[in-house]
Write a structure and sequence with these properties.
alpha/beta; two-stranded parallel sheet; binds zinc ion; 10 helices
Length: 267
């Protein structure tokens, strides 16, 4: 990684033994890491002398060797699993919350979002209902981006400055409305590192997923092999563009179901 580059990592739910996941579809579970994998990754960052920081810290401090740690959706494991490990490592992080998920089984309660904020973590917004933003008109976008910000600020009692796009669906309108609503950044799922001076309303992020091995994670944090992930993402984005969001989700669901079935041993 060049000294003027920062890598934004994107996490979702963390799995602990005996604890049911928020959702069970293969397309969801693909993004769920075990607590153990996450702990190994944080331990390794610490050993390497790489500091995990929040989006706010990264945008204000521009710490060159920092890795930005973000979580999407607002799962209960943010507070139960991630927060204690991050605190132990002395790392900051940004937790992006989807308002409609609060109080749902497995997700955070409003007071737990407050607990995360009070523990010093950065709270960002991940929309009102997790709708794909590229399917919405101006009114819908304002509801998902601006109204959600106001509601989240009422819950935590402090300003919410960062937004992340559900499903990574970014557009120039999303950036414009977020800026008008008073956000300072918008995070996407575009795979790249961010340079000092990168457009903060289109921040690239790399998903750490279930099958990301520790060596692959280490390569990622050193800025290696990003092109491989970019290539796979290009194929995915192209098929989504050709198929549209709804059909793309259906095709992806069937493909993942089949890959799970083919890996299940038959007796
Ligand atoms: Zn999400």
């Amino acid at each position: 990684m060049r000294p003027d580059e920062t890598l934004y990592l994107m996490y979702h739910e963390l799995e602990t033994p005996g604890q049911p996941l928020c959702q069970s579809e293969p397309g969801y579970v693909r993004y769920v890491l075990t607590e153990r994998s996450f702990r190994e990754q944080m331990d390794w960052l610490q050993r390497e002398g790489i500091r995990g920081v929040s989006v706010s810290q990264s945008l204000t401090e521009n710490s060159p060797r920092g890795i930005v740690i973000t979580f999407d959706d607002g799962c209960g494991s943010d507070l139960r699993v991630a927060a204690p490990l991050l605190t132990k490592a002395g790392f900051g992080a940004t937790f992006y919350i989807t308002l409609a998920f609060l109080d749902q089984p497995g997700y955070l309660l409003p007071r737990q979002v407050r607990d995360l904020a009070n523990a010093g973590f950065d709270i960002g917004c991940h929309s009102l209902t997790h709708a794909y933003l590229d399917d919405l008109d101006e009114v819908g976008l304002r509801r998902e981006i601006a109204d959600a910000k106001t509601q989240l600020e009422e819950i935590i009692g402090r300003p919410v400055s960062h937004f992340s796009c559900p499903g990574g669906r970014w557009s120039p309108q999303v950036a414009r409305i977020a800026e008008q609503a008073g956000y300072r950044s918008v995070a996407t799922s575009r795979i790249a590192s961010n340079r000092i001076g990168s457009n903060s309303f289109q921040l690239a992020r790399v998903a750490v997923i279930r099958n990301t091995s520790l060596p692959a994670f280490q390569d990622l944090c050193h800025g290696k092999n990003l092109w491989k992930l970019q290539f796979r993402d290009f194929i995915r984005a192209t098929s989504r563009h050709v198929l549209g969001n709804t059909l793309y989700d259906r095709v992806r669901h069937v493909a993942l179901e089949n890959s799970v079935k083919s890996k299940t041993p038959t007796r």
